[in-house]
Write a structure and sequence with these properties.
Layout: H1 5-24, E1 36-48, E2 56-68, E3 71-74, E4 84-91, E5 95-103, E6 127-137, E7 140-149, E8 157-170, E9 173-184, H2 186-193, H3 197-203, E10 213-226, E11 231-242, H4 244-248, E12 259-267
Antiparallel strand pairs: 1-2, 1-12, 2-3, 3-4, 4-5, 5-6, 6-7, 7-8, 8-9, 9-10, 10-11, 11-12
């Protein structure tokens, strides 16, 4: 497995987002504060190189997130955007409603990622806007997000829904598991999985008309352990599978799109 710099940069965005999710879920954060709160740490993430790829990218990277009152930098649970910033409009004991903005730190897919992609052109990085909501109890979390390409790179709109049950077999250990799915509009699906006549002529792949629909289903499993009030470690696994026109695309080499992250973090 090659550890290329541009692939590491892509994984950094995922790690930053994961740090925010960790701070809001399993690894129990410090007591709420009116000032700045930070999460920093190290981790390793494994994920497909690009949507539909049969190759895996693994990278060991630092992670960081911060929040001040209702504002956050880095990532937030269920926000659905890469590394960025945002704010909670509603934040009470159970409900959270927020807005976020973020951007790809690299192109999500390049021809040079795999010989299979030659002639299809690059999918360029862009900026995203997100509206997200969550409802949480000690034993349950439900999250929803609507993410839209506001940078004009034809990456459309996606809607993600996730349900997660939680169980604490030990005082400082939280285990979580649950299903999720992602719906994508036709613009997103065409960009990542469609092949028009020009791309077909250049690549030798058959044309493929891709439309809107549920394009990904997943099941996630996590375990987070609080070593001290500030230090924590965690492991998060996601087994995902492409569906519909995304699964049927000639671009897709593997329908299974699994990922995992292993990390240690410090809250201060």
């Amino acid at each position: 497995m090659r550890f290329q710099t541009r692939q590491c940069v892509q994984a950094l965005a995922a790690m930053v987002s994961m740090a925010g999710a960790c701070a809001g879920q399993g690894v129990i954060p410090p007591a709420p504060s009116q000032g700045w709160k930070f999460t920093a740490g190290l981790g390793i993430i494994s994920q497909p190189k690009y949507p539909g790829s049969s190759d895996t990218m693994r990278s060991g990277l630092p992670l960081f997130s911060a929040d001040y009152g209702r504002f956050f930098i880095g990532g937030a649970p269920g926000a659905g955007v890469p590394a960025g910033a945002g704010a909670y409009l509603v934040q009470d004991g159970h409900w959270r409603l927020g807005l976020g903005v973020g951007a790809n730190l690299r192109a999500p897919r390049r021809e040079s990622d795999d010989p299979h992609l030659q002639g299809l052109g690059d999918v360029h990085g862009t900026e995203f806007g997100s509206l997200f909501e969550s409802y949480s109890k000690p034993w349950l979390s439900a999250r929803a997000s609507v993410v839209n390409d506001i940078g004009g790179q034809h990456q459309g709109t996606r809607v993600a829904l996730d349900l997660e049950g939680r169980f604490s077999p030990l005082h400082d250990l939280m285990v979580s598991a649950g299903p999720g799915l992602t719906w994508a509009d036709s613009q997103y699906t065409r960009t990542f999985f469609g092949i028009d006549a020009g791309q077909s002529a250049r690549s030798g792949l058959p044309t493929h008309a891709a439309g809107s629909g549920v394009n990904l289903v997943r099941f996630s499993l996590g375990a987070d352990y609080r070593l001290t009030p500030a230090w924590g470690v965690g492991l998060h696994l996601t087994s995902a599978s492409l569906r519909g026109d995304a699964a049927d695309s000639p671009i897709t080499e593997r329908k299974s799109q699994n990922s995992y992250g292993l990390f240690g973090s410090y809250h201060f």
